[in-house]
C-alpha cells in the first residue's frame, strides 16, 4: 500500500525571497493492485507528487510510505515510465529492456528471456535490434513500458506516458496497458491531463486542486473490468467524465 499523509512540497526561493508551494497537505492511499489515475489543472503538482512517491525528489513535510516504510529514495519495488521515453539512444530495443535487469546482476539468459517475453507482450516482435531513433513515438513508449515491467516492480508510476502521442496511438496503448494490467495486476499511479484516459484506466480518479495542489476528491470508477473501448459509450463513463470537466472548468475560471 502507498500511503501519503499531510504531504507538502515547496520549491526554491524566488528573487523576492518567496518560495513556490507546489503541494500542500496531501492525503491519500493507494491499495495493492489498484489503478489510480491523477488529474488536475496544469501546474497543480501532479508530476511533483509522482516523483516524490518514486523517491526522485525530497519533500518538506508529511509522510510518504510504502507498506509502512518511509520513502527516502528510489526502490526496487517501484518503476517509473516517463512521457519523454528516456531510452538509451545508443542501445537497441532488446538492450534497453534488459538494462535494469543487468544493473541488478540478473544472469544474461534470464535478462534475454524476460525481454523477449515482454517484447511479444507489447507488440514489438521483429524490432529487437532497432535503435530508438528508428522507432515511432508509440513504439518507443512500448519499449519504455517493457523496460519498466522487466524488473517486475510491484508499483508502476506513470507520468503522462501517452501525452506526446497522436490520438490513435494513444488509444491503442491505453488498450494494451489495460491488457497488461489485467495480466500482471501491478499497483499503478498514472498522471494524465486527459479526462477520458483518467476514467478509462482508473479504479479511482484523484482530482487535484490548482497550485498549491491538494486532493479535492477521490472518485470511484464503477466500470466493470476487463474494459473495452465500448465502455466509453456507457452512461457511467460519460457521467464521471462530465463531473471531472465541471470541476476542472470551475477551478480554472475561478468558480467556487
Write a structural description.
The chain has 256 residues and is of the alpha/beta class. Helix content is 36%, strand content 24%. It is built from seven helices and ten strands. The chain has a six-stranded mixed beta sheet, with helices on both faces. It has a four-stranded antiparallel beta sheet with strand order 2-1-4-5, with helices on one face. Helix 2 runs parallel beside helix 4, helix 3 crosses helix 4 and helix 6 packs across helix 7. The longest helix has 19 residues. It is globular, with a radius of gyration of 19 Å. 35% of the residues are buried.
SSE topology sketch:
Layout lengths: L1 E12 L5 E12 L4 E5 L6 H9 L6 E6 L2 E2 L7 E4 L11 H11 L4 H14 L15 H14 L4 E5 L7 H18 L2 E5 L3 H7 L2 E5 L6 E6 L14 H19 L3
Parallel strand pairs: 3-8, 3-9, 6-7, 7-8
Antiparallel strand pairs: 1-2, 1-4, 4-5, 9-10
Amino acid at each position: 500500500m502507498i500511503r501519503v499523509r499531510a504531504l507538502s512540497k515547496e520549491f526554491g526561493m524566488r528573487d523576492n525571497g518567496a518560495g513556490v508551494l507546489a503541494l500542500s497537505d496531501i492525503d491519500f492511499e493507494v491499495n495493492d493492485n489498484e489503478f489510480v489515475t491523477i488529474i488536475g489543472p496544469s501546474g497543480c503538482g501532479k508530476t511533483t507528487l509522482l516523483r516524490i512517491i518514486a523517491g526522485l525528489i525530497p519533500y518538506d513535510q508529511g509522510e510518504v510510505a510504502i507498506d509502512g516504510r518511509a520513502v527516502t529514495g528510489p526502490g526496487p519495488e517501484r518503476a517509473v515510465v516517463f512521457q519523454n521515453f528516456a531510452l538509451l539512444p545508443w542501445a537497441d530495443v532488446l538492450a534497453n529492456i534488459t538494462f535494469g535487469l543487468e544493473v541488478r546482476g540478473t544472469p544474461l539468459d534470464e535478462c534475454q528471456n524476460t525481454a523477449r517475453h515482454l517484447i511479444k507482450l507489447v507488440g514489438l516482435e521483429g524490432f529487437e535490434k532497432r535503435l530508438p531513433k528508428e522507432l515511432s513515438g508509440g513504439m518507443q513508449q512500448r519499449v519504455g513500458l517493457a523496460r519498466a515491467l522487466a524488473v517486475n516492480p510491484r508499483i508502476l508510476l506513470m507520468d503522462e506516458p501517452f501525452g506526446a502521442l497522436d490520438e490513435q496511438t494513444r488509444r491503442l496503448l491505453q488498450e494494451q496497458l489495460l491488457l497488461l494490467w489485467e495480466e500482471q495486476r501491478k499497483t499503478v499511479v498514472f498522471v494524465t491531463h486527459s479526462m477520458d484516459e483518467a476514467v478509462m484506466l482508473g479504479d479511482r480518479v484523484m482530482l487535484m486542486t490548482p497550485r498549491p495542489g491538494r486532493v479535492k476528491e477521490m472518485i470511484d470508477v464503477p466500470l466493470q473490468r476487463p474494459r473495452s473501448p465500448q465502455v466509453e459509450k456507457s452512461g457511467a463513463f460519460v457521467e464521471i467524465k462530465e463531473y471531472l470537466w465541471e470541476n476542472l472548468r470551475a477551478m480554472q475560471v475561478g468558480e467556487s
